[in-house]
Amino acid sequence: MGEMTLLEVEIDGQVTVKTVDRGGGFSRNLASLGIHAGDRVSVIRKAPFQGPILVRVQGSEVEIAVGRGMASRITVESD
């Protein structure tokens, strides 16, 4: 399917994080949440009313809420 942003991934979609764009602080913030370039992530849920996107990094049981603004800056690739 190709490249898109994490914001564009459908619920239950599994993708690989390609780039975490927009500066070192943004990348560090995502890394502190547990999301890194090369990770496989699944979109679990999208909250209504422009709320966050809930994702799970493959191999982890931890679910991470990512704001929609942040998700729009994460480039991912589907198989």
Observed structural traits:
single chain, 79 residues, alpha+beta, 2 helices, globular
Describe the structure.
The chain has 79 residues and is α+β, with helices and mostly antiparallel strands. The protein is 18% helix and 41% strand. It has two helices and six strands. The protein has a six-stranded antiparallel sheet with strand order 1-6-2-3-4-5. It is globular, with a radius of gyration of 11 Å. It starts with a strand and ends with a strand. The mean pLDDT is 88.
Topology:
Layout: E1 2-5, E2 14-20, H1 24-33, E3 40-46, E4 53-57, E5 63-66, H2 68-71, E6 74-78
Quick synopsis:
The chain is an alpha+beta fold. Helices cover 18% and strands 41% of the residues.
Q: Would you count the extended β strands for me? A: 6
SS-based class: alpha+beta
Order of helices and strands: EEHEEEHE
> How is the main sheet built?
6 strands, antiparallel
Distance between the termini: 6 Å
The fraction of residues in strands falls at 35-45%
- Spatial sequence of strands, sheet with the most strands: 1-6-2-3-4-5
Q: Overall mean pLDDT score? A: 88
| Total of helices | 2
Spatial shape: globular
User: Which ranges are low-confidence, i.e. pLDDT below 50, for 5 or more consecutive residues?
Assistant: none
Rounded to an integer, what's the Rg over CA atoms? 11 Å
